[in-house]
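A reminder before we start the practical. When you read a complex entry, don't treat the lines as separate problems. The point of joint prediction is that each chain is placed relative to the others, so the output describes one connected object in space. Small molecules and nucleic acid strands, if listed, are placed in the same frame. In the example below there are two entries. Take a minute to note the order of the lines before looking further.
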Amino acid sequence: MAIKERGRIRKKRMSYHLNITSMMDMFTIILVFLLKMYSAEGSVLTNADNLILPNSISKKKPKEVNLQLAVTTDMILVDNQPVVPTDDARRIPQEDPDPSIIKLEEKLRSFYAQEEEMVKMGALNQVMGKVIIQVDKNIEFDVLFKIMNTCGKVGYNNMNFAVMERES
Amino acid sequence: MSRESKKKKWDDQEMDFKTFMSLMVVLIPLLLLSAEFAKIAIIDIKLPEGRGSQTMQKVKKPPKQDDENKLLLTTIITDSVLTLGAKNGFLPSLFYQEFHRYIAKDDQHDFTVKYDPSAAELPRHPKTGRLMEIYERYDIFLYSCDETYTDIHKCLYTKFGEMITDANSIARTNVGVGDTVYALTNPRRMIIVTDPAEEFELKPLSVYDELKNRLMKVKERFKDADDADNIIIAAENQVMYDKIIQIMDAARSADFPNISIAKLRG
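Here is the predicted structure of the whole assembly.
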């Protein structure tokens, strides 16, 4: 009797064995997928708070890391650093034929100079003059125009508007 | 006997996955948390080099002599009218009424209200009476209406949200079995109606769809123009950025990839 029982216990212990190989396979696939997704687009654009991008049918993906300009309802940010309140842009008279937001222009000029410096050193082939503009969808056109004008003045002629891809 | 001993050997050689497992268990939630599921795309706007800030004003200058074969297609948007114009004239304006869709942050209540430009504050939550925040505004719809702003035009839409037009690109409000209609895709998709009630739905006509419809017509007719890919979007100061993006979308889907932006002087 006792021998029988012992035998059964031993058998049980042998058969209770968690097989995690299939789970490992699954985990590996998920891990690879997530890592790939992360590296593909995670770092190119960062989203500022309180900034809602408009929806668009555009499928074009931001590729390289560029200068980022974010315009929220109360602040204008360059590379995630607040530069000037948006109200400053609103205050510029609308009749001004060549409006420019002075603080923003200074900041952009310093970035442009950095880019030129890198060209001199040979790190870049040419000055790209590329900027990604993230604008809140509730911003009025007047502000947008002044910002675009400022960018164009400094030499950032290649502007990209960031949008949300429509889910459909 | 020999079989049993072999099996035992096999058992001994099994890898210990436990440490790797715990690593996975940490890594996967971490990556899932940091992953962004909303996809961000970009729209390219290129200003001609060297002209910088002058570009946007130069566009507005009257055509010169060498511009003869140019179309100079322009979309003009103000806060109540959308107009399509070219060198030789303007198409009839599209009058629109603006509707805003809000989704409340707290109870996910989804409602659409007519926008009143003269109102000082944003609308209130229909149930709790709370003042809505601007961040809760989810969509802006522009519905085409007549010039007195009373009647909103209607049009049939497919299940995929495509506007239905007839062979002359005029919006259809009713169809019969056996009619040939066109869905507003690029190029237009022909549909022979078999079951009108099942296939189509009567909805307010969005001005963006009507704009796309007109733009496609223009593109078809003036594809030989020197600037057949170009379009200028001219906007008034108060026009919201979202509308400009929607117009850009309409323009790009109608095959006008080169978009410039101009300002309307009030």
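Discuss with your neighbour: The longest strand of chain A covers residues 158-165. What might explain this?
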